[in-house]
Design a protein that fits this description.
The chain has ten helices and no strands. The protein is mostly helical and 238 residues long. Helix 3 (34-69) packs across helix 6 (104-127) and helix 8 (145-176) packs antiparallel against helix 10 (202-230).
Length: 238
Amino acid sequence: MGGGNGPVIPNFGTGDACVTGDHAFCWGWVHQHWHDTLGPALWAHIELTAIAVGLGFAIAFPLALLAHRFGRLEHPFGVMSALLYTIPSLALFQILVPFTGITWTTVEVALVAYTLVILFPNIVAGLRSAPDEVLEAARGMGLTRRQVLTRVELPLALPAIIGGLRIAVVSTVAIATIAATLLPKGLGYPIFLALKEPTPFRTEIYSAGALAVALALSADAALVALRRVLVPWARRLA
């Protein structure tokens, strides 16, 4: 802070005129704080997303198989997951805190819950996408119920399953930024830190936000590539 009527300079850093001058974006700050701020935040965000989507799929897939086999189970499973999705993320974090504390588990439980409403219906819809005539032909060839599932229904369900994964991953990357309100983890944490300053440091906000967008786009592109490998007949639909 300057004396008298001098300007107030936020404590964004020293030794860099771009930073101390609070310019719109400072590459020097990004380079200087990659290893202690942005890099760890990015890695934590990847962990949050991968664990949430992985656990969500591990739960949604068997539930979808049960709903596909026993149609009466689809409605209660779908209603349960939809109810969880209607709860705002901040509220769900607060609801879980008394049970799991301010922990990584609290964040993951919330994120997993949000993936279920996306993954479950997509997997069920994919399993039911096989045309009746194809199923009849498979049964006519003597395939058992399990063989029809593994050789016909699951391969034809792959486009819908991967499509659900794409939506779940992108959504989880976005929602995971809010986890910083509970834990100092993920790309949301640098953003919230910068916003707490009397004069928000724009470089920290822009860089963390850009990394979150890049992460979502990269994950989506990877799943599109996976779909093209696993489902070559659907390449024009990707």
